[in-house]
TrEMBL record:
Signal peptide: none
Domain of life: Bacteria
Name of the protein: MFS transporter
Domain Major facilitator superfamily (MFS) profile residues, every copy: 16-392
Molecular function (Gene Ontology), one example: uridine transmembrane transporter activity
Species annotation: Brevibacillus fluminis
Amino acid sequence: MPSLATGEIRTEAKRSYMSIIGLYLFIYYGTGSFFPLMAQYYQSIGLSGTQIGTISSITPIISIFAQPIWGMLCDKLRVRRPILMLALLASSAISLLFTQISTFAWVVVVFSLFSLFQCAVIPINDSIALNFAKQQNMQFGNLRLWGSVGYAIATLITGYAIRSWGPHAIFFFFAAATVLAIVFLRGLSDEGDNVKVNGNIFNGIGELVRMPRFVLFLMGAFFIFGPINANNTWFSLYYEHIGGTVVGIGVAFLLFAGSEAPFMKVAGYFARRWGLETTILIAAVASGIRWFWYSTAPTTTMVIAMFFIQGLSVGFYLATAAQFVRENTPSSLQVTALTLYSSMGLGLGSMFCNLVGGVIKDTYGILHTYTFFGIATMIGLVPLLLIKLRTKAKITEMQ
């Protein structure tokens, strides 16, 4: 009987593992079909840089308010799967509405509704994966890397689809990928975290913002994660500006996102060797250097040839940042903490960088937008350095 029980546990763990891989693969396939190539859709309906920046800021603005609420609901109700399924179903259906509109006002309305549900997807999915990784004593990066694989494949395939069928292909590919993610989600059990949950869901935020390390990390995410996400909005226009094509954009994103997977695979090794704080700092420095280099208008050949910079910067950052949040916040507030982190990076940081980046593009050109991204990232190094110094001081005191 004991061996049978062990076999059942292993079978359940394997099924959950495959379900999480499928979730990451298709959630990020949808994301890769949508966000990096939306500028092509905006351009096709005649929107200006400022209008594109404004629309791109909708998801961040809504995320600031909606993501913590989604997270607190998950922590309070101790469920993940039903809420994630709702968010996936709603965002899939709403995405198809873009095929029926072509004015700035209607895009704002539909994008706002879309963002309300879409902003819940990644933090909740990350929470499920982090919880599973902790239970199975494995590195989160080994799960998260499948998102980069899906994202990479999607940008290439959707880039070709846009050339053949036009920008509306974006929304059909997104909806199809999201439905496939739901199929994998149905095979995943939702066991909760088996921890005591605060009685008042709003008490969690108060507890988190009283943690200096977490607050400093959020400040860093604002200035570092913001440009990373804003690049998904502006890169296609930037790449065309330096002489690239729409298909070339897909190839670039294939290589960029594909390079994240191996770096995520080894992120755990470097985090154990150097520490989470140092690994995150290295990723941030690489990210800042990348944006400054882009502002010098290198050739498309050089941009493609240096594709691995994305893996070093974004791959390391994404794999280690979520782990930092998990290890520096109470387990009972894990989803709330992840959604606050996402709200600062995907939310406030992206909103700030998209709005300012759009104005800079219209006034000075797209190259100066990337100069701004580089400056913002350098500012984000300051709170990360403070975290590193505080950690070093504590180690010295213990010795």
